[in-house]
Amino acid sequence: MTLSAESIRGLYTAIVTPLKEDKSVDIASLRKLVRFQLDNRASGIVPIGGTGEYAALSRSERKTVVEVCVEAAEGRPVIPGVVSPGYQDAVEAGKDFAAAGASAVMTVTPYYATGTQDAIRSYFKQYRQDVDLPVLLYQIPYRTNVSVTAETIAGMAEDNSIIGMKYSSYDVPEFIKTVKAAGSEIAILSGEESLFATHVALGARGGVLASATIYPRVWVDVFEMASKGKLTEALALQAPVNDVVKTIFLETNPGPLKKYMELAGMPVGSVRLPLQDPTQATLAKLQAVVKQAKLVNLA
Asked: What's the pTM?
């Protein structure tokens, strides 16, 4: 299925890419992970992005992962991340994902060779023309050192370049400006667990969250409560996973997340270089929080 801004709502899980002991992609575990998300009321799947180790996978592996996700999702939205720094590589990835049956792509702002706001707007306008899929902007300035302003995002919506965006930033005032500038035209999705409920209460139509890989039901419940304007209640629902979220991001995602999943009884293998398994200090904290989570029946 393809997506429109109006059809995007709820939790879209940024899933890990399961790996076997030899570090090849574990197709069987990937299928199982996708079904787990959808059985627990996730609205869709976001494979291959940062959480899915995009940079560590080959082009053919990325396409295979998307094909498997599309098959396992059985018609539910699959929105693979595109985090290539160069335009042509990003276009090739988008075309591969379109051929694999993706519903849309979530494309990061160009980085390393950065451009002006006008250049970024032109980048996405051309990208949408070259890739036959709806596009969501992926804004994550603490990884890319690139921020797209609310005005530019409104312009991109006017160009029909994007149908939505993942907003991964702790800048709440800029988030509010973005919602006011473009929230009626595109689907703005939160990318920050700690601000998810707040973002939804302020106008986000959902979120793309990494920790939902293991706890989708928690975040679906938080979303439904926050979307009713009940922020205090939503934050209370989120409270049991706050320590989990804090701990799985102590080191570069998804290393700690994958180890946490193993400890929680959902093994998905390790990570590929340049990432490594968590340090002993982080491992000890992961072991502590997984015990706490089991006490409140999250797993």
From this structure: 0.94
